[in-house]
Amino acid sequence: MSIALVILAAGKGTRMNSDLPKVLHQIANAPMLVHTLQAGAALSPAHSVVVAGHGFDAVKAAVEEYDPDATVVLQQEQNGTGHATNMAREALADFDGDVIVLFGDTPFVTAETLEKMIVARDKSAVVVLGFEAADPGKYGRLIMQGDSLEKIVEFADASDEERDVTFCNSGVMLANRAVLFDLIDALNSNNAQGEIYLTDIVGIARDRDLAVTAVTCDEAETLGINSRAHLAQAEAVFQSRARAELMDLGVTLQQPETVMLSFDTVIGRDTVVEPNVYFGPGVTVESGTRIRAFSHLEGCHVSRGSTVGPYARLRPGAELSENVHVGNFVEIKNAEVGEGTKVNHLSYVGDATVGKGTNIGAGTITCNYDGVMKHHTEIGDSAFIGSNTMLVAPVRVGHQAMTGSGSVITKDVPDAALALARADQVTKPGLAIKLFEILNKKKHKRDQESQ
Ligand code: UD1
Ligand code: CA
């Protein structure tokens, strides 16, 4: 059976107290909506429809960036979850299959749980995802009769007896497309909140003698985000899940709770990550590397056998080949660094190509920006860049070439050449002693004057 996703994301999220639509607030550097889309993507949906309202343009842009094939439809006024789902009707008019409704602010539903719902669909026309709530609060209550779900009662409409029920509605629902929209046609807003509730389709389906059932998931999966405090909780949930997954895959995290990961971080097995490392979006690290303490990585690739840090910064476009050493206080941006090359101390390598087996001395800077434009630096294989070399781009230092310490290199250095670009040293025998005497006298005089 083919599947379509409908993701409800039109709400304002008043409690976030933000100019940004709620579903665009980020967890692990991706909008929470993208996490919901990712969970749904595990079902290989034939269609994904996002229902947006508040911040429509921004939501549409974020969805399309993640999945250009997704459809984003507008819900002009937020008249309830049933009304919102109905907005997807046209987009799915030609779709023959099952529809799963998810909430954009409930990003942690797992693929396994969704699969369980699909299995349950074999015997039921409508499947609802429920959970046992530690604190049922204002969640909708699932009223069961044996295995049959009879109705969902919203908290505002529930009797005292119904409010005692702890089996709650997560909001996730599954039904055949035609059945779902038929049931939605029968909805009304005669309820305490005057909204068109999607949850009412359960009672209507039972009135029509359709089988309805509930599948249970862990409460952690239904964590809904309504405030900044919830967002922080969600971040913590994501991080601990992602760290556990990495460790299962054979990555050592010396102090897991201090390592921050992004939604798309990839790290190979037998890599060791020391404490306090930050992985921004777009990082892939191969097997058998060491990422040392306090390093900050984003949009970069680290190949097998390399070491990074401590205190290194790899910015977007940093591509380290195998066995590269990047040491403390080194920043690398938009640069390829060849196999076995070492950049061990206090350097900036940006907009550059560095060959194999090259040594970049401490304090080397690629001066890539002239105040208006960026320029490229090329360094060949087996070269030696002396400490404190300024490479004023565009410039090329050839294979097996050398630059003297403190040089300001503004012209290309051919292969095998040594370039020195600094003032010649002047040495005056005995002059240091004289200078010390003069200075000490001056100091003595000043000390006496100030007494
Ligand atoms: C909903 C359920 C409730 C369930 C709870 C779980 C209904 C009527 N109630 O309540 O049973 O326990 O979720 O969290 O479905 N949305 C729209 N357009 C609208 C209204 C909502 O897109 O007109 C979106 C929201 O952006 C949000 C989701 O639907 O992503 C849920 O809406 P919300 O208002 O938070 O529903 P609850 O009252 O929490
Ligand atoms: Ca909610």
Structure description:
This protein has two domains: 220 residues, Alpha-Beta Complex (Spore Coat Polysaccharide Biosynthesis Protein SpsA, Chain A); 192 residues, Hexapeptide repeat proteins (UDP N-Acetylglucosamine Acyltransferase, domain 1), CATH 2.160.10. The strands form six sheets. Strands 13, 15, 16, 18, 19, 21, 22, 24, 26, 29 and 32 form an eleven-stranded parallel sheet that branches. It has 451 residues and is α/β, with parallel strands linked by helices. Strand 8 and strand 9 form a beta hairpin. It is elongated and about 105 Å long. Helix content is 22%, strand content 28%. The structure holds uridine-diphosphate-N-acetylglucosamine and calcium ion.
List keywords for this structure.
451 residues; alpha/beta; UDP N-Acetylglucosamine Acyltransferase, domain 1; 2 domains; eleven-stranded parallel β-sheet; ten-stranded parallel β-sheet; 35 strands; binds uridine-diphosphate-N-acetylglucosamine; binds calcium ion
Topology overview:
Layout: E1 3-9, E2 26-27, E3 30-31, H1 32-41, E4 47-52, H2 56-66, E5 71-74, H3 81-86, E6 98-103, H4 111-120, E7 126-132, E8 141-145, E9 148-153, H5 160-163, E10 167-176, H6 177-185, H7 201-207, E11 212-216, H8 228-248, E12 252-253, E13 266-267, E14 272-273, E15 278-279, E16 284-285, E17 290-291, E18 296-297, E19 301-302, E20 307-308, E21 313-314, E22 318-320, E23 325-328, E24 331-337, E25 342-345, E26 348-354, E27 359-360, E28 365-367, E29 377-379, E30 384-385, E31 390-392, E32 395-397, E33 402-403, E34 408-409, E35 418-419, H9 431-449
Parallel strand pairs: 1-4, 1-6, 4-5, 7-11, 12-14, 13-16, 14-17, 15-18, 16-19, 17-20, 18-21, 19-22, 20-23, 21-24, 22-24, 23-25, 24-26, 25-27, 26-29, 27-30, 28-31, 29-32, 30-33, 31-34, 33-35
Antiparallel strand pairs: 2-3, 6-10, 7-10, 8-9
Residues 224, 226 line the site of calcium ion (CA).
